[in-house]
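Sample entry (107 residues):
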Amino acid sequence: LSLEKQQANIKPKINRVSVVYVNEDMKKIAMSIASKLRLQGINVEVDLQGKPLRKQMEMASESRYAVIVAPKEYENKMLIIRNMSDGSEKQADIDSFLNNTKSSLQF
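Predicted structure, serialized as tokens:
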């Protein structure tokens, strides 16, 4: 109530995962990961227009998590998972993440 009086603009994070990719080479991989998450019933957003990472991250700011697909990490079969509320990041093994997504993201 006091925040409303102060006209604070606080948006709750949507129970959604944004899958973002660092470069065009990672786009197909990101889309594949997004499809696998959707099959698990997770609300997923992924950029189809090839926007730069910065713009993708801006779009992801309303999601609860961003899954970042980057070449160096992908080479090691890893993803970066960013909590969009507090900015914390962790790396996760791709297969483990996809097999235990809801527990990994605490949905």
